[in-house]
From TrEMBL:
Annotated protein name in UniProt: 2-oxoglutarate-dependent ethylene/succinate-forming enzyme
Alphabetized Gene3D superfamilies for the sequence: B-lactam Antibiotic, Isopenicillin N Synthase, Chain (2.60.120.330)
Reactions mediated catalytically: L-arginine + 2-oxoglutarate + O2 = guanidine + L-glutamate 5-semialdehyde + succinate + CO2; 2-oxoglutarate + O2 + 2 H(+) = ethene + 3 CO2 + H2O
Stated family: Belongs to the iron/ascorbate-dependent oxidoreductase family.
Needed cofactors: Fe(2+)
Keyword field: Ethylene biosynthesis, Iron, Metal-binding, Oxidoreductase
Keyword Metal-binding assigned: yes
InterPro entries: DIOX_N (IPR026992), IPNS-like_FE2OG_OXY (IPR044861), IPNS-like_sf (IPR027443), Iron_ascorbate_oxido_reductase (IPR050231), Oxoglu/Fe-dep_dioxygenase_dom (IPR005123)
Enzyme class of the recorded protein, top EC level: oxidoreductase
Chain ranges of the Fe2OG dioxygenase domain: 147-253
Pathway in which the depicted protein is active: Alkene biosynthesis; ethylene biosynthesis via 2-oxoglutarate
Amino acid sequence: MQFPVVNYHSPTAAQDFCKSLHETGFGVLANHPLDQHLVDGIYAEWLAFFGSEAKHKYAQDPVKFDGYFSPAVSETAKGNDKRDLKEFYHIYPWGRYPAEVSDAAQRYYKEGSALAAELLKWVEDNSPPEVRARYSEPLPKMIEGCDQTLLRVLHYPPLRGNEEPGSVRAAAHGDINLLTILPAATEPGLQVLGKDQQWYDVPCDFGLLIVNIGDMLEEASGHYYPSTTHRVLNPTGEGRFKSRVSLPLFLHPRRDVVLSERYTVKSYFDERMQELRGKK
Ligand SMILES: O=C(O)CCC(=O)C(=O)O
Ligand SMILES: [Fe+2]
């Protein structure tokens, strides 16, 4: 499977990017407006935060879903029975934000959300008429006034060798939301499952932005835009001793949006959360 790198400034960027999203569920953008130096600064200061005891002051809120999720409460992917080898912090505009870090991640939240909204407009504009006819309202409208978009700062600790057999950094999963944007992480490891059932490495060169379709957009588009299964592999060799930090931003629609004849956003989300919680 090929992931064409689309130049954000190319005259055919929107078409090329959406073709890739349609064919693979993933799109890769270069020369986009998000500053990878800002992202690298966030990686560095949050790595220090995850290395400190301060993180425990912000233990996750099981209802609101903001704050710090330790490896002991990290996610178990649908269809998997082991917890992922990761800890993370959920940032919402209304949620708790650690006093120990700068406002860089909050700035990134705003810039990332604005770019994700623009890319959603690209998706709308490049949906064939029969697909567009399925949307209960234009895609950009689905996110208007929504405060559920989530920035997750993710830390995959170095491997210690005592991990439970079969547990991985991030087990194979699809994202629940509309669209996810993910700047190049500090280390490789992200893979996508191709239609041929083979795993493919996603490019992770400095400054690239990886974008993928989530389950809600797959549902709303009648599967025209597929939510492709992806995972984060455990590192081997020297990489075992290194942390990996990544920064997915999950663009979410309003809870009352009708996704399809079967689901509203709320019913879809509740069903998925039920599946996740059922395993804890
Ligand atoms: O860390 C990564 O590169 C991907 C993370 C991811 O897929 C997720 O958190 O949903
Ligand atoms: Fe994901």
